[in-house]
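Can anyone check this?
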Amino acid sequence: MEKPKVSVREASASDASRYAEAVAQLIRESAEHHNIHPREVEDIRRWMTEGVAVIALDEEEVVVGFCYYHLWSDRMVTHSALVVRPDVRRRGIGRQMKDVLHGMVERDVPGAVEISRTTCPVVVHMNERIGLEQCPLDQLTSDPAFWRECEHGCKDFQRVNAPGSALGQSNPIGTRCCCTGLIRRC
C-alpha cells in the first residue's frame, strides 16, 4: 500500500477556521500518551492567524501534524506543540515541520535564540538533528511565563516538585523540571 503524500507548510489565517479544531483534537489525542498539554482552539486559531504556526496535511487535506513558535520576553523562541498523527510518524514529517518553523523564526525574529524543553527522546533527537544542543535549563529563557507553563501542562510537575524530591534540575524560577533543555543561537 502506498503511503499518502503529506504537505508541510506555514499555516495561514485562512487555515484557522478550517483546521484549528482538528489540530486541537490531534493534540488532545497525543496528550493521552505523551507529555504534551492540550491547547485551546482559540489559541490555535490565533497562532495560525498571526503566522507563527506550521501545519501538515495529507492528500485529502486532513491534518496530520502541527507546531508553532512562541517568542518570549528575552528574544528566545520555543518550538511548541509539535504533534504528528501516529499513522504517519517515522516519515520525517516532524523534522520537515521543524525545518519550516526554523526558517520562519530566522525570517521573523532575526537574531533570536531557539530553545526547547522536552521529556521525549524522539524530540531531543530531532532537535539535535536540526542543530540544537543540549544545555542546562538555566541557559533557557528566564521568562517566568515559560516556566509557569510546566505547572499547568506537565504530567511530571507534581512528582518532580514534591517536597524532598531530587528529580530533575532547578529552573530559573526555582521549581524543578525533568525536561532536557536544548538551545540554538541563530
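Reply from J.R.: I decoded it. The two ends are 41 Å apart (CA to CA).
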